[in-house]
Specification:
Two copies of one chain form a homodimer. Chain A is α+β, with helices and mostly antiparallel strands. The first copy, chain A, is built from 15 helices and 18 strands. The first copy, chain A, folds into two domains: 282 residues, Aminopeptidase (3-Layer(aba) Sandwich); 113 residues, Alpha-Beta Plaits. A six-stranded mixed sheet of chain A has the order 1-2-6-3-7-17, sandwiched between helices.
């Protein structure tokens, strides 16, 4: 690790482990499952705890109310700040099915030693996005304490996992406070555990629920089968037809040669990718084709089909109703609203009895790949890891990012810290001290560079 | 109601209500959900209770063990019996989801007054098949007490709803005891509440479960979507392809003109059918076409698709595994084994990673429409209801019926007692005293006629 640029910084980062662990424990053990999916009071309790962490490092911090759950805003400043940076993270987490977690306690924080990464920090939200949020706080604190003349505003949203439905409330209410020279988001990942990266694009998304009720109660498939309409079968047919349709491919801008050259340099490893996500079967094993499919092409994904009988044995019924949860991932320059309209029209024509509810949507996003902030991030990751970061895209979506870019007119840059094996949205999620150390050091370097 | 044929019988039937109600209560309140779907000890307890009911009317009764759960066999005989009849019923019932039942207690027996039917007897199993089983017992008792020289053997199976997987054990072990001049089964239904009928055919069935595991754990649809295979989507595609395929239509013998003429005389009422089964949407409203589809054509039905996320809100995952429960209804002269082989071959070609488990299968069945037993049933229903029964088919399946016909070489006849509105396999199932009275009177008449 190169520490010539900021003497003593690496030691200070190393001495941050107790602080990091203690605060990550506090955040992970608050089950801040996204609004509408659990008890929203847990989210509010999590926001208060997050505010206290920000206050404990000397930030002025407060909860900003929205029509949904609050956003925590904290501001840590040098008295002679020359530069203002906003760092966005989120403190809500995906639901966790205890049955699929080893030990069955997703919100119990556990620390395990690890040969290469020193410690693994286990628990829902550890990598998405509580651990990276704390890296930015610690990095800013170290930079300012070392004299960096910078003003860092932390924006911790609590509705990211459900599409940031009220985040524009925050951007409107605190527009002036949030005007900054740069916005940095870390909530993205490296292509492999050894290859730092800078993300240059996000996929967007559009969620939808399709419901079909064909009867008032389930019926005996012998007595009515052939005449009764089967809602599960019809939703299967509808999903198959949507999958084969091209309306959701409209508006895709394919990556150019330079971007593809960047992908080819990323060291993307199909075996590591499959192992990290525990995938037994994939649609392709060609590395470039894999990258193109996860980063640059839209998808239509089915998350669950409810209704009917899924218990032990067999129940020979025609179900009365079924519900399909699905979503599209969308890529630059697709428009989620236009895809949503096209979906409604498609379903109306294919099966008019199906009710479609459009859920959260996220615009795809293209990040700047030039300029001082981009350069500072690349240099910081290089200096901290000793490796030159590659340029990739991100297959996931962050609803707030295109909102910030549109509403505040400030380009958003990415400083990825998570790894594929960390398990975003998956059981047994974790973060690790090696990535946290890289995060704290990189943020400290970025803030120091920008303050110059 | 015509009572000239057997003076005083109708009064004796009317005086049977307390006996019928009390014994139906005992049987319904034992939650004899089919083996493998609940606690099999409840089935065994139900068999003992059923044996006691048979013993209480003077039958010699015992439990016959199988590799699965027992069958109860009871024999009620006139000392000078000239004729032996076997009556088959089953005492296992479909599972009942308390959330879908009014009052939430499927195994609580309730009696409600009703203007046309005197009493409704509510509870899981009331019409399928505990109520009709008791009608045969009471009818036999009345006939023998009035001097009918007949030997009636009651065979009450406990695995009918799961395809009678061990019923051949009973037929083999008790072959000689079960050899009879006729076998009668009542577990079928009238086309409308006012139209008595004799069934002349059963659909067969083939159950299957299809499982697909594509990963060791669920994954974030942003990170892996496009490369990870989605097991729910692939099972939807597979089900759609099977539905559009013709392999499961092989071997169908279409009804002839006489049979269709019989259907047209059945008074089938689309509005009553839809109301009885609470169907909001159907595939056709043409009466003949409806009868052809439910009685004479095969179906491919999806019962439930498990896996993925079906809770509150959205969880943007690619599921790791999914399971589809489905079944085919098959018609004369389709062969379930051949359809099963064709299904395995189809899936192997379409999606080799999908594991198919074939479940219970039931052969379709054609009943005799001539002969003394058929004539006795038609006359008994006519005398008891005052209406001439029509000839229809049955869309459901009774695995034991073709087994009896094959193993014992005795044709099986039907004496239907249930109504579409009773709710076979549905929430809020009931039976009623009008149909019970018709059942007791008709069985008494059939036994009396056959004994002459």
């Amino acid at each position: 690790m190169n520490s010539a640029d900021l003497p003593g910084l690496d030691d200070e980062v190393l001495q941050s482990e107790a602080w990091f662990r203690s605060n990550l424990r506090s955040l992970v053990e608050l089950p801040t499952v996204s609004p509408g999916m659990s008890d929203d009071r847990e989210i509010v309790a999590g926001c208060h705890a997050a505010r206290e962490i920000l206050a404990s490092v000397g930030a002025t911090a407060e909860l900003v109310g929205t029509r949904g759950t609050p956003t925590v805003i904290g501001r840590l400043r040098h008295p002679d700040a020359r530069m203002r940076v906003v760092v966005y993270n989120h403190i809500d987490v995906q639901p966790a099915d205890t049955a699929t977690w080893d030990g069955g306690q997703p919100f119990h924080f556990a620390v395990d030693p690890h040969p290469e990464r020193t410690f693994l920090y286990r628990g829902r939200g550890a990598t998405d996005d509580k651990g990276p949020a704390l890296c930015a706080v610690r990095g800013a604190k170290l930079a300012i304490d070392r004299g960096a003349k910078i003003d860092v505003t932390f924006v911790w949203e609590s509705e990211e996992e459900v599409g940031s439905p009220h985040f524009t409330d925050v951007l409107t209410a605190r527009h002036d406070d949030l005007m900054a020279d740069a916005v940095i988001v870390s909530d993205t990942i490296w292509p492999t555990a050894e290859q730092p990266a800078v993300s240059t694009g996000l996929r967007g998304a559009l969620h939808a629920t399709m419901r079909l009720r064909t009867a008032g109660k389930e019926a005996h498939s012998g007595l009515v089968g052939g005449v009764a309409r089967n809602p599960i079968k019809e939703l299967c047919q509808l999903a198959t037809a949507i999958d084969a349709s091209d309306f959701w491919h409209a508006g895709v801008t394919a990556p150019d040669e330079d971007e593809i050259a960047g992908f080819l340099a990323a060291g993307f490893d199909p075996d590591y990718f499959m192992h990290a996500h525990d995938l037994h079967h994939v649609t392709t094993r060609d590395p470039l084709e894999m990258m193109l499919r996860i980063w640059t092409r839209p998808t239509f994904e089915l998350h669950g089909l409810g209704g009917g009988y899924t218990g032990r044995g067999t129940k020979t019924i025609v179900p009365d109703a079924a519900e399909l949860k699905c979503s599209f991932r969308l890529v630059p320059d697709q428009d989620p609203m236009a895809i949503g309209e096209a979906l409604l029209a498609f379903v109306r024509a294919a099966n008019p009895e199906v009710e479609v509810t459009l859920g959260g949507s996220f615009r795809p996003y293209r990040a700047a790949t030039t300029g001082a902030v981009h350069r500072a991030i690349v240099d910081a990751l290089h200096a901290t890891t000793g490796r030159c970061p590659v340029t990739v895209r991100e297959g996931g979506s962050i609803g707030a990012v295109p909102m910030i870019a549109r509403e505040l007119g400030i380009p958003v840059h990415f400083l990825p810290l998570s790894l594929p094996d960390h398990g975003y949205h998956a059981p047994n999620e974790y973060f690790d001290w090696r990535q946290a150390r890289i995060g704290i050091g990189s943020f400290a370097r970025v803030f120091t560079t920008l303050a110059r």
